[in-house]
Each structure stands twice: as C-alpha cells, then as structure tokens.
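Notes, Module 5: Reading structure tokens.

Key idea: the token line is not a picture. It is a compressed description, and you learn to read it the same way you learned to read a sequence, by spotting repeated patterns. We will look at two proteins. The first is printed below with its tokens.
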Amino acid sequence: MLMILVGFAILGFGLFIFYAWLPVFYALFGFEIGLLLGGWMFGSAGSARIAVGIALGAVLAAATYLIEPYRRIVVGYLGGSVVSLSLASLIGLGRFDSALLAAVIAVIGGVAGAMIAMRFFDALVIAASAYGGATLIVLGARMLLPIASEPTALSAIPAIIAIVLAILGMRFQLQHMDEWRPAQFSGHRHATEAGDRKK
C-alpha cells in the first residue's frame, strides 16, 4: 500500500513537489530507486525492498542542500535512473535478481537523464515522475494481488497499465506546470519568448 500511495504522489505532483518541497522530492525519488534496486537484490522480499528504499530516500533528503549547486545534474541523473529501472522491471528484467545488472541499468539511465536535464529540465522531471510513479503503483498492486510470476499471455498488461497511468500523469502535470513553477522561472520563459518575437 505504501508503494501505491507514494506512486500516486509522484505520478501526479512530481513537478510541484520538486519546486515546493525539494527534500521531499529527493526522498520520494530515492525511495523509488532504492525500492527498485532492492527488488533486483532481494527478489520479491517486500520488507527488504522497502528498507532499501527508505534508507536511500533518507540519505538523499538529508543531503538536499549539500547537492543543491548540482541540482539539475542530480535530478536528471535520478530521473534517468528511475525511468531506466522502471522500464527494466516492467519488461521483466528484474527476474534475473542481479544487483550488478541493476547498477549498470541505473548508471546508463542516470547519465542519459543528466544530459537531457541540461536542456529539458521540467520536461524530464514530469516524464520521470509520471513514469516512475506509475511503475510504483503497478509494482505495489503486484505485491497486493496474487499475480503469477512466470511469463504468460497476460504478462504485458502491467506494462500497458503503467504506460497509460504515466500518460495521464504527464498530462495532468503539464496542465498545471505554469501554476507550480516559481514566478522567476515563468517570468524568464515569458521574457525569452517576447525577445524571440521581437527578433
């Protein structure tokens, strides 16, 4: 149930949480990354996964202001790691229970996310939080419901549900993006657009 609640929070309000409560944002993203990594290390052991998620979330929340000068790179890295680990878990790679494979996937996704964040920061936060939140919801439902672990004809359904939830989450966040962004960011964007029109 905790995974589902955290998933809905990230899914619908990722960008808002980032601008309003940065330590909470880091804690939630750290919780999800730890949860996903814990799944690769300990399999379906729910308590162990949650313990890893809570530990990583607490560390990132505590380090919020230490990593503030590198915020865009850190958020991009976390977002890329969340998306890559989420995608890998949903397509079934998590059944290999390999911590090394999980680390490689997280690093590759994190580096790609950090590079994307330099140009499309808000878009990355929205996409990563929506998809990451959707994955948490699906994984939480899997733990609550008796779903077969072996591949079947219905194995693709969780991934489809996650994609649909992610699209809905991105749409909701995009609709409220201007309300949630601080005035200085919105003002800078409007000034830039005005300058472009003059040119």
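Here is the second protein, with the sequence above and the tokens below, as before.
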Amino acid sequence: MTGGDRMKTTWKYLILIISLLLVISLGSCGKPKAELIYWQSVSDSDKVLIANKMIDTYNKTNADFQVKLYAYQSDVELRDALDNALKSGKLPDVISISNSSVSKFISQDKVVCLDDLIKEDNSFKKENIYSGLFEQGMYEGKLYSLPFRADCLAVYYHKSHFANSGIDPASIKTWNDLSLAAKKLTNEGRFGIMLPAGPFELSATLWQTFFLEAGGEFFDQTSNNLAFNSKEGIETLQYWKMLVDNKSATLSDMNSQVNMDNFISGKVSVWIDRAWNLTKEGIKKNEDIGVFPIPANKKRVTFAEGERIYIFKTTADRQKGAWEFEKFVTSADFQTEWSMNTFNLPICTDALSNKEYQDFLSINPNLKVFVDSMDYAAGRPYIANYSQISNMLGSNIHDVLLGKTDAKAALDKVVEKSIKIIEGAN
C-alpha cells in the first residue's frame, strides 16, 4: 500500500468515527428529558421564584427527568386541583402540601409508601431528619411523606419592656415564670401577653403545644379518641384562663395583621408565633424585638409543621425519578439555601454543620432560637379533616377564655364532635 493509499484509508476511518460521534451527539440532543410534574402549595411569589431557581439547578444535573413546578396559592386551591386530577386520572408525580390534605389519597392507594425506597437506598439517611418531623409522615404504621419545610413556635418579646420591668428573658423557663412575667409586664396601657383564641390554626396549634408540655397525649389509649379532655387538657386551658382572669393576657383579634400590629406597636409585650413572622415589616429590622424558647411544664415542646412531599403512583421509572427529586429537596444543601432565602427552618440536622448557614444564624439570632427549638419539636396527628377539628378547638378555647363555659365542658364537646368529623372522613 502506497503512502497515498494509507492516507486515504486513514481519512476514511476519521470520517467514519466523526460521523458516528455526530449521530450519537445528535441522538442525545434530540431526545428530550421526560418531565416530572411537581405541584406545590406556596402563597409567596418570591418563594416560587426561589423554588424555580433551585429546581433549575437540579434539572441541569439530572440526566433522566426535567422537574416542572406548578405553584398553587393555598392548600385549598391545591386540594381542589388534586380532586379534579383524581377524577381525570392525571395526578402529578410529586406534591408538597399539608398532611391533612392527602390522607384520602393514601386510603385510595394513590400515594407511594416510602418504606421500601428508603430501605433500598443507602444514600438516604433518615436519622438526619428531625424525628418530630419524620414521624409526621407515618400513616397507619407506614411512611408516606417527608418534610419539605419546617416552622415552629417560639416567644416574641419587646426587649425594652423586659428591661424596664427588670425581667431577664433567659430566666423564663417554666409556665409559672411566664405567668409571673406577664403579670409584671402588664400596666395601664399594655398587656403582658396576647393569647390566640378563635376558629383559626394558631389558636389550636399553640394550645396543643401547651397541652403536650403538660404531659398530654393526643389519643386516649383505651378509646383511641382524641384526649383533649384529659386532666392535662383541662389543666392547660385553665392555665390560659388564669392569665386572662388576672388581666395579664388579652385575646387576639380574628385578623392576624391586627395581632401583629398590636404586638409591634407595644400594646402587648409577648406574642407566641412562628418563625416566618421574622420576615415581616416591623419585625425584621426591629432591634427591640427578641425571641426566646417556649417555657416548659413537665417537658419542653414546640409545635412544628410545614408542607410535606408526597409521590403519587405512576410508573416505576417516574416514581424512581420522583424519589431522586424528593432526596434533593430534603438534602442539607437544598434546605440550607431554602432557609437562608425564606426563613423557613431546615428539616434536617446535617444542615447545621454547614458553615455558611452557621454564619447566617450568627447574624440572625432570633431565627437561631427557632432552629434550636426543633430539637424538641412535635406535630399534629395524621387525621383527615384535622383542620375542622383545629377550628372547632379554637372556637371552644375562645368560649372558655370569654367565660361562656368551663374547660371540661368545652373540651368534652371538642372530643365528642371530633369523633363524628373523623368518622365522616373515613
């Protein structure tokens, strides 16, 4: 073979190799990624932008699926969309929503149980998730969800009120400490503390926190009914009534903004609420407002809640892709960035080892109180229509604090009606 022939043969091989590479390249470019549909309940447009940005990052590194976010303004709007999707047979792949909105889908075998996925995946460490949040995903002994975000309760207070009254917030460790401080903080133009009372979530959430601190258990071990009318429940409601009767506590307004305005303006010294209020105007740059943990009774508890992530049953490949996305959302990297942008709390303990996040908490000490409180977080029972029970509980608490009925009668009424609500949901 002459030199010219060898050159021609070499060029033929080169052209063949380049052609093959082009075919492979064009083939991979022409094959679009399958789309995973993710529905999220989020009312804040800024959070939607943040979520989309983080999902875009995930999509660039994921070889198989492209996650597409559809944001709904509320749980109610998302529940309606889910009901319509169930009728049409076109449920999304993944959703994040509150627990009470999904139980009927679990009972209809539409939601993927996560137990086997976790058991077969050595990369997922369930012990990194706060136990109080992890356990909220259990339904009839099986795990169906992981937390997407977290929030919990702590005590907001006016530093100047405490200083002028000679009270060190660090000294308030028990219910008795809180009641004594509230009395001392009260004067002619100011109440020591404001209690949420009425048919809304915060009223029931805070009362249940105190109920658990008193040693209460959600369910009666004999009847398996809600046990709000136990001696611990009565003790809790009587404690709140004492604060009202001695005029150191005022009751909240039905309008949450009015409540926040009353606190910010100094008409109230103490208000117990969630971490997300730290981003509100009047609080986020107010040097006079501090935060300390909820004081303990028989034990220390803070009520933690937040949307949770569920995977709907589709195909094996799509469910596997949804699980990979769920791991991404619950990872320390995602959770730290999400918390720094939204002031939601991370759902996993390994987020706390992130130096950037520790630096962030050092310049946001009020947020750090909430993050530290997650060590003793608890949550609501996994019951369908629980929001109805919460509203009813809040209304009956309100009646007791107004003196319309006594604690035992009100809580007996709540338990009796809750039985019918739970039966109606099943």
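Summary for the second protein:
- The chain has two domains: 34-150+306-378, 153-303+383-425.
- The domain at 34-150+306-378 is CATH 3.40.190.10 (D-Maltodextrin-Binding Protein; domain 2).
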